[in-house]
Every structure is written in C-alpha cells, then in structure tokens.
Amino acid sequence: MGILVVAGCAFVCLLMVVGVALTEVAMQDRRLVACADALAGASVAGAPLSPLYSGQETGINEEVARSRVDVAREELASSTCRVGDGVVVDWVEADRTEVEVAVRARPSVSFVPPAMGRIVVPELTRISSARVRGVSDTP
Fold it and tell me: What is the pTM of this model?
C-alpha cells in the first residue's frame, strides 16, 4: 500500500512539474510575440512622413529598418524582449509601406538542465509586421 502512495505522489509531482514547464514556455511565447510586435513597430517608427502628406509614395529602406530593429532589440533586451537565452532577429523585410520582422528564441525552463534544454525545449519563432499608412487610408 505504501508503494502505491509513493508512486501516486511521484506521479502528481511529475504532472505539476510538467504543468509549470508548459506554463513557462507559454508565458515566454507571449513575451516573444510582444517583442516581435515592438520590434516591427520600431522599424517603421522613424519613417519619413512628408511624402505621405504630399500624396507621394513613401519608401522604407530595408537597411535602416534593420538597424532600427537591432537598436530596439538591444534597448528592450531587459524588458519586453527578455525571453530565454535572448531574442535573435532572423530577418527583416521591407517594402514601400510595410516591414516584417522574424524573431526566434529558446525559452528557459526552471526544471530542465541547460544541456538538456536544447533537446527538449522547442525553439519559438514569431513573425510580426508593421505598416505605414497614408493620411487618406482608413484603419
């Protein structure tokens, strides 16, 4: 009877550990989504608006957008972009009015050793975009 009680307690403890680990991964996934959104927004934040007001086409330079993303990632590394071992920007694509940013991170899980974490814990990847709209565009 004692063995069954110990086995039952061990099983309940295992379920609790798995539940905590899944919650940690889910929370860090939400943080990665917020980070991707913030980086995409930062990439278009300094876009010149004068062509928009004159009715001309605007262009977002991909190199400038990438540099804005890198600066924003460094600034947000201790807050919004604090996910696992750190957020890595995979790519930044820009066209005339829209920028897409892809980020990835491997979340850290409390109960998983770092060496085993690379095997067991999934790498999270998220893509976000931001768009510069003209004065006459509707939201």
Answer: 0.81
